[in-house]
């Protein structure tokens, strides 16, 4: 029986995904955490913890170095809330183009008896523009960005995309009408609207700052529904004060953005829909089960991809440092135990490596001795033995 500990309110549909082999919140030594927004940085991860799955895109609330040192695989659920974010960005594009925020505020403030005559006189103050024929620059063409780009095309917009890390698989999801820019400056220089959809890391912190903002044409509308820090908010305020940026829409508030007519802050609701919560919880539950039952890894944050058909009777998985001579040390332990290897695979990601070894014959006594021997290798972090039984 696998033990799973949940944090936050996890969609019931996701919890229902677990099979009868999984118990929820019944042990202080769980095999898995299923989380959303809980901050784990002050937590001591139990040695029993083999996997953390976050029902969401970001993992800034997970101590990745501590998890890796503990031999704990960390996964997120990329794409689970992509449609939710796309729909909100498209809605805000319409809102921006038609001055709907200002128009709604005007109507809320003028409810007197002659409101019909007054609004008829004043409505020209809120004349907007149409999105048809306007240019949208999409920075980042992954799960969310590709959906936004395709949806904007459907609205008749010209779409220019920039993503130096675009994978071949992701490229298939992008309509051929999306123009590709060679740099951020090329993407934004003629854009009426600019939206960013990139993960947050050292390379993307302040990706949109003074240089990029100055490359945009005056009157541009800027959107950050990615992560706080992707847009340099101090630089954005400077551009707003200069009238270079007409309006800034973001899901991530900071004091310097407060009480401005030219800034719209939403309370981090980009991915907050019922459907997205179900998608994330379901995807996270399936990820946990796949990893615990097969050891296979796809798109982990701290482990390399390794997907090996589990056809043998037993499987050893070994998380270890990415240093020379590890594979030979591991296989020599199996040779000493007189075990024949049916299948073996190894891959590395940064400083961490992962090895899968399948064997057909194994008895209980020799299996524990082998696990102890593998764990005794100095660079080994975690050893697991899986079986089909």
Main features:
389 residues; alpha/beta; Rossmann fold; Alpha-Beta Plaits; 7-stranded parallel β-sheet; 16 strands; NAD(P)-bd_dom_sf; oxidoreductase; NAD
Description:
- This protein is an alpha/beta fold.
- The chain folds into three domains: 1-81 and 274-303, Rossmann fold, CATH 3.40.50; 82-265, NAD(P)-binding Rossmann-like Domain (Rossmann fold, 3-Layer(aba) Sandwich); 304-389, Alpha-Beta Plaits, CATH 3.30.70.260.
- The protein is 32% helix and 21% strand.
- The protein has 13 helices and 16 strands.
- The protein has helices at residues 12-15, 64-69, 82-97, 100-109, 115-122, 143-154, 168-171, 184-188, 210-215, 233-241, 274-294, 326-336, 364-375; strands spanning 2-6, 22-24, 32-35, 51-54, 73-75, 135-139, 158-162, 179-180, 193-196, 220-224, 245-250, 263-265, 314-321, 341-349, 352-359, 380-387.
- The strands form three sheets. The protein has a seven-stranded parallel sheet. Strands 2-1-3-4-5 form a five-stranded parallel sheet. Strands 14-15-13-16 form a four-stranded antiparallel sheet, with helices on both faces.
- α3 (82-97) crosses α6.
- It is elongated.
- GO terms for molecular function: NAD binding; phosphoglycerate dehydrogenase activity.
- Catalyzes the reversible oxidation of 3-phospho-D-glycerate to 3-phosphonooxypyruvate, the first step of the phosphorylated L-serine biosynthesis pathway. Also catalyzes the reversible oxidation of 2-hydroxyglutarate to 2-oxoglutarate.
- Keywords: NAD, Oxidoreductase.
- Its EC number is 1.1.1.399, 1.1.1.95.
């Amino acid at each position: 029986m696998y033990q799973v500990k949940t944090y936050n309110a996890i969609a019931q549909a996701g919890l229902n995904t677990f099979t009868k082999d999984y118990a929820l919140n019944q042990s202080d030594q769980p095999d898995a955490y299923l989380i959303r927004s809980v901050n784990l940085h002050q937590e001591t991860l139990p040695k029993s913890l083999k996997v953390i799955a976050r029902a969401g895109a970001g993992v800034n609330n997970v101590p990745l170095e501590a998890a890796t040192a503990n031999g704990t695989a960390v996964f997120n659920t990329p794409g689970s809330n992509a449609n939710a974010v796309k729909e909100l960005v498209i809605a805000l594009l319409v809102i921006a183009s038609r001055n709907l925020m200002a128009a709604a505020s005007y109507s809320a403030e003028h409810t007197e008896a002659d409101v019909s005559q007054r609004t008829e006189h004043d409505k020209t103050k809120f004349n907007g523009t149409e999105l048809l024929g306007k240019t949208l620059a999409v920075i980042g063409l992954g799960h969310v960005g590709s959906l936004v780009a395709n949806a904007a095309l459907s609205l008749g917009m010209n779409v220019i995309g920039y993503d130096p890390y675009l994978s071949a698989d992701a490229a298939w999801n992008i309509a051929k009408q999306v123009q590709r820019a060679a740099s951020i400056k090329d993407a934004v220089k003629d854009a009426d609207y600019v939206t960013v959809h990139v993960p947050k890391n050292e390379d993307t912190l302040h990706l949109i700052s003074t240089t990029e903002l100055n490359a945009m044409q005056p009157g541009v509308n800027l959107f950050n529904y990615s992560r706080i820090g992707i847009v340099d908010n101090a630089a954005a305020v400077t551009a707003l004060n200069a009238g270079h940026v007409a309006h800034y829409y973001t899901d991530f508030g900071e004091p310097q953005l407060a009480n401005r007519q030219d800034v719209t802050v939403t309370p981090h609701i980009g991915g907050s829909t019922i459907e997205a919560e179900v998608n994330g919880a379901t995807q996270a539950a399936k990820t946990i089960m796949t990893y615990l039952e097969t050891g296979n890894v796809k798109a982990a944050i701290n482990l390399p991809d390794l997907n090996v058909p589990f056809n043998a009777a037993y499987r050893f998985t070994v998380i270890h440092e990415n240093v020379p001579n590890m594979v030979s040390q591991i296989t020599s332990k199996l040779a000493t135990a007189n075990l024949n290897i049916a299948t073996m695979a190894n891959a590395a990601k940064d400083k961490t490596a992962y090895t899968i070894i399948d064997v057909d014959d194994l008895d209980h006594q020799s299996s524990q001795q082998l696990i102890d021997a593998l764990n005794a290798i100095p660079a080994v972090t975690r050893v697991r033995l899986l079986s089909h039984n």
